[in-house]
Write a structure and sequence with these properties.
Structural class: alpha/beta
Strand content: 15-25%
Number of strands: 12
Radius of gyration: 26 Å
């Protein structure tokens, strides 16, 4: 019997085996009151005939769409962050293995994010949401908890209880980063951070300060620059910090995109990255390995994180307690050529940059 895959019906299977339609249905739904011999005959017929249950009918019966949603916030410069592309790719790959779909959309404000989620829920477009770039007090998480709608967060909020999340120990990573730089001989260490509304940026800033305190280094507010988390923000942050009379000799950046922008600034104005200025990023993006020089970074595989939160959301949809699905992982430092011992004192670094700036003034506005 040759038929187009997908055109075979449950009635065809029942006629082929010589059983009632209901018997086929009970086997396909894993009921145990059918004899093993009949079960094997039905499953063989399903395979031979190429029968595929109707996804629409199956989903209506289960109340599921087999689609997960993610609403990407485009504020805070996150639209320019390559981490999100890698993260979404990881989600899509994991769902593809499970035969599920991913619906991706964007929102330009907090209210727009909630409106978008409300619309997708009302139209039954998705079974659950993956929330990323979590804020300290995140209105998306508050809304989804209030609606009792399934979700998993990549990152935490101020109160991480009562929902499923996967996060990296950001504070420990940045405290370790400061200690690593100090071990190389750096004592003036700068931070290029992101908006402190973003919980990961706040955690990494806090870890930076904890690292300074653990070494007995004074905290200097002028050595912290908060920017949008893309490459333009990194360029602007490096400009702000390195143009000081006593600049830092090392820059710790809260994303790889910021670090890439900082490297671009240094190269443009003749500073040797890894010697005159050390630059360390955070994300472990593949592009970092191919920079000149290759970027030292704290690695958290964006693809693996995407796959992990996708599978966690499936667990939530299958009835697991969200509060039992909370995981904190460690970021690993991958050393490449962008970090090293300082070759210049802060004062000598300032003189070197000042000379280059006199020859080639910086154009453009901060953060561009």
């Amino acid at each position: 019997m040759s038929r187009i895959r997908g055109s075979v019906t449950i009635d065809d299977v029942a006629r082929h085996v010589g059983v009632a339609k209901g018997t086929v249905s009970r086997v396909l739904n894993n009921y145990t009151d059918i004899s093993e011999e009949t079960r094997k005959r039905i499953l063989k017929a399903v395979q031979d005939l190429g029968y595929q249950p109707s996804a629409t009918a199956r989903n209506l019966k289960r109340g599921r769409q087999d689609t997960l949603g993610i609403v990407i916030p485009v504020g805070h410069g996150s639209g320019a962050d390559p981490f999100l592309s890698e993260f979404i790719d990881g989600i899509a790959r994991a769902l593809d293995e499970l035969g599920l779909d991913l619906l991706v959309t964007t929102a330009h404000s907090r209210s727009h994010m909630i409106e978008t989620m409300q619309r997708l829920i009302a139209r039954r477009k998705v079974d659950g949401f993956i929330v990323t770039r979590t804020e300290v007090d995140d209105p998306r998480i508050a809304y989804l908890k209030e609606q009792n709608f399934a979700f998993v967060a990549h990152g935490r909020t101020r109160d991480p209880s009562g929902y499923a999340w996967f996060d990296i120990d950001n504070e420990a990573a940045f405290a370790d980063g400061v200690r690593h730089l100090y071990s190389l001989g750096h004592e003036r260490i700068g931070l290029i951070g992101g908006s402190l509304d973003l919980n990961f940026a706040l955690q990494r800033r806090n870890g930076f300060r904890q690292g300074l305190e653990s070494l007995g280094l004074a905290h200097d507010p002028s050595l912290e620059s908060l920017q949008s988390v893309g490459e333009k923000g990194g360029f602007a942050g490096a400009q702000e910090l390195l143009s000081q009379d006593k600049p830092p000799t090392a820059l710790l950046c809260v994303t790889d995109a910021l670090a890439i922008g900082a490297v671009q600034f240094c190269r443009k104005f003749g500073l040797r990255v890894g010697s005159d200025v050390t630059v360390i990023g955070y994300d472990g993006l593949p592009v970092g390995e191919y920079l000149d020089p290759p970027l030292t970074t704290f690695s958290q595989s964006a693809q693996e994180a995407g796959g992990r939160v996708a599978r966690m959301l499936i667990d939530v949809l299958d009835g697991k307690d969200p509060s039992s699905l909370q995981a904190l992982a460690k970021a690993d430092l991958i050393r490449r050529a962008s970090d090293g011992a300082p070759s210049k004192t802060p004062e000598a670094l300032a003189d070197a940059l000042r000379n280059r700036l006199n020859q080639q003034p910086i154009s453009g506005r901060k953060g561009e």
